[in-house]
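DUF7746 domain-containing protein structure dump, as promised
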Amino acid sequence: MQKYHFAFEINMLSVGRIMNYFLEFHLDVLIEERDWNQTNTSYSGSEIYEWNLDGLTDRQLTIMVHRMLMYATICKSVSNIDKTICKMIIAGFTDQLRRWWDNYMPSDARATVINAKAVNEGVDNLGFALVQNREDAVYTLILTILEHFSGRFTN
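structure tokens r here:
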């Protein structure tokens, strides 16, 4: 009997001193892993790279999309056209991104993204003139990814 009473007293003491050790935090303010902030990436304009967004925060998704745009710029510098670059990016989709492209996006929407053209003339960031009806598949793909996975970015 004495053992039961002693064990009961220990349990009562431990119940009274339980502390919550979990921390509340928001994923967007976490310091991301080294891979996302400090890894230098290099791309070739003739190879296909893997793009996977499974488990990424909004910030990491933005970084991945930025890397897609860097890849597209390198591909453009070795004389690939926008439609080909878009198809190269799509070929590298894996997991959730691949399932989204293959199963969620209707075939006419996929064709619209791949064949997108910018109808307005304009000026780019460096002051060069942009012609009317130029290919715009890569930026259309990027905006579609951002709007679907991260929320609305355009009007």
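Residues 45 and 73 are 8 Å apart (CA to CA).
lmk if u need the other ones
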